[in-house]
Amino acid sequence: MTTSLTFSDTVSGKAEGDVLVVTLNNPPVNAASAELRQGLWRALDHARSDNAVSAVVITGAGKSFVAGADIKEFGKPQVDPTLPAVVEKIEASEKPVIAAINGVALGGGCEIALAAHARIAHSKAKLGFPEVKLGIVPGAGGTQRLPRLVGCLEAVEMIGTGKPVNAEKAFGIGLIGAIAKGDLLSDALALAQSLKGKPVLRTSERIAPRSDQATVQNTIAKITLKAKGQMAPGEAMRLAASASTLSFTQGLSDERETFLRLRDSDQAKALRHVFFAERDAAKVDGLEHVEPLPLNKIGVCGLGLMGAGIATALLSAGYELIGYERDEPAAEAGKARILDILGKNLKSGRIDQADFERQAANLATTAKLRELAPCDLVIEAVFDDMTIKTELFQKLDLVIRSDAILATNTSYLDPDALAAETAHPERVIGLHFFSPANIMRLVEVVRCAQATPQAVATGFALAKKLGKLPIVTGVCEGFIGNSIFSAYRREAEFLLEDGALPQEIDAAMEDYGMAMGPFAVFDLAGLEIAWARRKREAPTRDPEARYVDIADRLCEAGRLGQKSGRGWYSYEAGKRTVDSAVTEMIAQSRAAKGITPRAIASEEIVKRLIGAMADEGKTLLDKAIAARASDIDLVMINGYGFPAYRGGPMFAASR
Ligand code: CAA
Q1: In a 3-state reduction of DSSP, which class is residue 638?
Q2: Is 131 among the residues known to form the active site?
Q3: pLDDT digits 0-9 by tens, 477-524
Q4: How much distance in Å is there from the Cα of 467 to the middle of ligand 1?
Q5: What is the pTM of this model?
Q6: Which residues are within 8 A (CB) of 485 and not within 5 positions of it... i.e. 6 or more apart?
Q7: Among 16, 91, 131, 320, the one annotated catalytic
Q8: Is the CB of 281 under 6 A from ligand 1?
Q9: Distances (CA, A) of 362 to 241, 299, 337, 379, 554
Q10: How would you label 496-515 residue by residue, b for 16+ Cβ within 10 Å and e otherwise?
Q11: Residue 331 CB: number of other CB atoms within 10 A?
Q12: Is the CB of residue 160 below 6 angstroms from any atom belonging to ligand 1?
C-alpha cells in the first residue's frame, strides 16, 4: 500500500512499503530554498518517529536532484534550518538514507547526497561542486565528506575547478555506489531493502583513501595558476586537502568559517552578479514568444581562421555544414583547416573517434556559391571589407531560399548598410564570433534595423545550441564589445601621453585580473586595423578632440605588433620585451605636445581604464545598443578577458 504525505509545498513523501520516498520538487532546478530545507527536515523527523519506516530514499522531481543552495538567498538573513544542519540530520539518521540522484546534484545538492548512507544515480546524472564559480567554497561539509569518499586528489580537482563529473566517472572514483540499471527508483528501493536494519555507513566517519601528497600539491599548484587572482579555488582546495590530516569536526569548522567569510566577499558578490547576468541575458525583449526557425544545413563563407573556427563549432553541435571559398584550392585549404581543428579535438580527448567521423562526414566544401542553395542559414566570415561583403551578400541573396537567414560576422562594418544592398533585408542579422570561434564563448547577435524578430531569435538560438553565450546588440560601429574596447584603447593612450609606460599600464591591468594588459593585446591583435580606421576617420575627426598619435608613429615605423616581431614591445625569440625605442618614441610625442610626464600609480590606471569602459557602456545603454548593463559586463568578461570575479566594468565601476 502507498501513502502520500506532504512535508512542505516542495517536499512530499510516499510510503513504498516500509521505505519512505521523499521527493524534492522545487522547480525549475530544485534549489535548496528555506522551504525545501524545512520540508526535508520534517520528512526526516517523520522517518525517525514512524516505526513503520525502515529506510528513506531521497530523490528529485524533474531534471535535477538538487542544484545547490538557493543563490537568491545569499546576502539575505539566514532562515533555519540551515543546509549544514539538514545535511547533518541526514547523516545522523539511524535508519539508512539513500540518495537516488535523478539529475544534477550540485553544490549543496551534492552535499545532501554525500551525507546519505548510500548513493545511486541515473546514468545521465551529473555531480559536482560549482561553488568556486560563485566565489565561495562548499559550505555544508562537501570539502570534508568528498575526500573521505574519493580521496584528496579527486576531491581537490573537483572542488578546485568546479567542474561536474558524469555518473560513470562518479562511480569510477567512488562518489556513488551504483548507477541504476533499470528504473532509478526501483533500484533505489531495492538498495534500501538491502541496507535496512544494518548499521549505517556515515561518510564523515570514513578515512579518506590515500592520495599521493606530491601529486595533490602539484594539482593544487596547477589549478591555482589557472585561477589567478581568485580566492575561492585556493581556499576550497586547501580545505579538501586538509581532510587527510584534520579530524572531520576540525575540517568542518574551518570550512564553515571560510564559507561565511567568502560568501560576503567582493569576489563572491561579483560572481553572483555574473551568474544572474547570464540568466538575464537569455531574456530578450521582443523575442519572448518568437519561435526560431529550425536549422539543419548551415553555410559558412570564408574558411580562414575565423570561418574555420565557426565551422568547427557548427559541426560539433551536429549541423551539416557547407563551407564556401572563392576557388577550389582555397576550399580545399579551408577543409584541411577544419579537419585539423577536429583532429586536435580528437587528440585532446574533447571528442571521440565516432564524433570525429560523424563531424567530418557532415562537412562539405565548395567553390560554387549555388551549392549553398539548400542552407537554412549562411554565415559570412570573409575579409572585413564592405565591397567584398556586399557583393557576396547580393549573390547569396539570389541563391538561398527566401526564408533562409543571412548572417554577417563583421566586427566593424555597418550590417544595416549590407542588408540594404539585398532584396531581403529582413533576413539579415549579425553573428559576431570571437576568435578562435570554436573556443570563445561570446557571440554578439546583432539586431539589424530591418531584421524580423524570427531572424534574430534564430541567430540567438543557434549560438545557444553551439554552447555559446549570445548577447543581443544593436547596430553601431564595433557593437557592444569593440565600442567599449575602443574607449579602453583611447584611455590607455591618454595614460601613455600623461606619463605611464605600456609595461606599467599592462602590469596594472594584469594585476587587476585582465587576462592581458591592453598594449599586449594590441600587439597580439596587430596594430594595422586600428591604424587604417584612424586614417579613415582623420578627415572627419574633431580637431579639438584629444588625439594621441603614438600608435601612428609605431605603425609608420613598421611596428605592427607581434606578427611583425615589433609593436608596443619587441618579440625577439617570441618573448615580450620592453623596447627602449618605444619609450623614446613616447617621450618624443609627449615633448612635441609640450606634455610633462608625471608618475601615475596603478590605482589611477585601473580607475581611469574601468571608468572609460563604464562611460562608454552608459552611452551604449542610452542609445539602446545594449539592453542592460549586465549584458555589457558579460561581453567584456567572455570576449575581452575581463576578470569574472570583478563582475565586469559596469559592475566594477558601480561599486
Ligand atoms: N539557486 C537559485 N536559482 C537557481 C539556481 C540556484 N542554485 N540554479 C539555477 N537557478 C535558476 C536560474 O536563475 C534560472 O532562473 P530564471 O529562469 O528565473 O532565469 C533557472 O533556475 C534555470 O536555470 P538555467 O537557465 O541555468 O537552467 P539550465 O537548465 O540551463 O541549467 C543548472 C540548470 C545546471 C542547474 C544551472 O542552473 C546551474 O548550474 N545552476 C547553479 C548551480 C550552482 O551553482 N549550485 C551551487 C550553489 S552554491 C551552494 O550550493 C553552496 C552551499 O553548499 C551552501
Answers
A1: helix
A2: yes
A3: 899 999 999 999 999 999 999 999 999 999 999 999 999 999 999 999
A4: 17
A5: 0.92
A6: 478, 640
A7: 131
A8: no
A9: 46, 12, 15, 17, 45
A10: bbbebbbbbbbebbbebbbe
A11: 19
A12: no
